[in-house]
Description:
- By secondary structure, this protein is mainly alpha-helical.
- The protein is 66% helix and 4% strand.
- It has twelve helices and three strands.
- It has helices at residues 7-23, 28-58, 62-68, 72-78, 83-119, 151-155, 159-174, 177-190, 195-217, 220-233, 250-258, 267-312, and strands at 127-130, 137-140, 146-150.
- It has a three-stranded mixed sheet with strand order 1-3-2.
- β2 and β3 form a beta hairpin.
Amino acid sequence: MLISVYIPFLVTAALAVLAPPVAHRLPPRVAALALACAALVTAAGWAGSLALLAFTGVAQIPQIAEEGRWSVSALRSQDPVYAVVAAVSTLVLAVCVVSFGVAAVRQGRHLLRARRECAGLPGDTELAVLDDDVPLAFALPGSPGRIVVSRGMLRRLGDAEREALLAHERAHLRGRHHVFQSVWRLTAALNPLLRPVAAAGSFVLERWADEEAAERVGDRTVVAHAVGRAALASAGASRPAALAATGGVVPQRVRALLAPPPARRSLPLLAGILLLAVCCASLANAASDSDRMLDSAQWALCRAHAGSVTAAAPTGHDDAPRHGPDGCSAAPDRPEHGERHF
């Protein structure tokens, strides 16, 4: 536990540094799926490690130990975690859980507001055209979702570019990109180290929609022109949209569209899978060590109870009680759990 409990922190830090540049070089759809899985696993590892470190301190509170029926002194003698580390872990875990709760409420409200706005749009087709001179184009998730484009945006684009713009927004809806955004926002709220991953994920979603639009239109240059013109036209618009053709770092998106499609690379994915496997294995090992430590502390309390009962029993009686007051059996053949496993 002394080492394995900290490995998820190291894996998360490595992911925060390496994932964004690597994701920009992968096919966008693959990169989005990989970033979402990595964020979920490392956020769970982060929270699990903090919980294990915090529990080593909380478990030594006499009231908690009494409820759990383990020996505080035995647990304290075996605990490899410093008290200050356990206290800081408890505080950080509490802050992260509160942050996650606040982010979940905000994300839920955001999705509900988007669905209400989607239901209130005129017409019943996928495309809703707003009679507005302000250039706008975005996708609203719903059941089903809607593509919203203003007349001001349509007037600034040619026919082929309009088709590319609509194909881009349709890709957002078809790929349910708002689900990916929710995953990254919530995991980043739980684990602040994942904020670079969330930022990279937003860019990858726009690239995913760009590539699908290029496949649909059949001309990467047309999509690049549509993205650039839409971004320039909406530069002064006051209404931001999460899933829009003007989102992300537009110059990088245009350069990627003017270049050949990204090649498939298996090595970064294999390296990422290995890191996530190490994260899961180390957390499982730390949890197992913590369970053995508690088991040893429980048996220490049982042996103490058994010794006190034996000392109080009359001498010469072979039928002395074999069970402590907490129902602990003084089994002499049970292996010792006092050794520390790290």
